[in-house]
Amino acid sequence: MLHLVLTSNSSRNRELSSLFGSFINANFHDLPALQIEKLPRPKLTFFKSQLPNLNYIFFVSRNAVDIFFQDFEDLVALLPSNIKFLCVGSSTAEQIRHYCQSFEIIFPDGNAQDSQALLQKLSPLLAYKAKFLIVKGEGGRGEFQDFLVRTGHEVFEICVYKRLCHKYTDSFLHELNLKHLDDDYVFVFTSTEGVKCLLPQIEKFLTKEILRKSLFLVIHDRLREIIEYPHCETIQLNKASFIEVIKHYFNKKYLL
């Protein structure tokens, strides 16, 4: 039996379970590594006057997209018609399109899904003193903002949420039934914070033998640096990439 443990938020995990379940025979486990808590709305009196002149909005995550379009409708109404949206991956781009389909969305090509890849694609397009809004959680993406400021652009930011570690009880983890040596295990991590929060809890629950044989899938190479187990691969969360890695590790054993 293949156990596929998904560690993003439950909504995203359901989407991935539906996608992967169409071609993989597995038990899917919804195990969010993080809890997202909205922050109190900041005072935006001065900032509102800047909105009509914005050139770009950078959404750091799908959570940032949802909170901005759902809770800041007054700001959305003030956006200029030529605004361009930025993000680091196709998943966040899809979430932006859910709210507005008529605006241009810029994100990295290929497997790279980080701020550096976004800057490489964006830099040739930038006019001097462009105006940016970064919609983000507490912390993160400092390099992106620092680069923009150093190169003469004007940057505003709104922190709309914070990440909290999702703490699981021993009894809950026991009910997942992930302790059979004859089974195969795949853990999918989508953020550095998620690895740091959830992996120590998993390590207390699972044996070292199971962890050493498990496959860890991550969406960025930097996550591989903090997972100290032999089987760790960087993938994109799409059908082709997932089939390729499952074939590599398990042959066609679990493919429908």
Automatic annotation (TrEMBL):
Tetrapyrrole biosynthesis uroporphyrinogen III synthase domain residues: 29-223
GO terms for MF: uroporphyrinogen-III synthase activity
InterPro entries for this protein: 4pyrrol_syn_uPrphyn_synt_sf, 4pyrrol_synth_uPrphyn_synth
UniProt GO BP: tetrapyrrole biosynthetic process
Name recorded for this polypeptide: Uroporphyrinogen-III synthetase
Organism: Taylorella equigenitalis 14/56
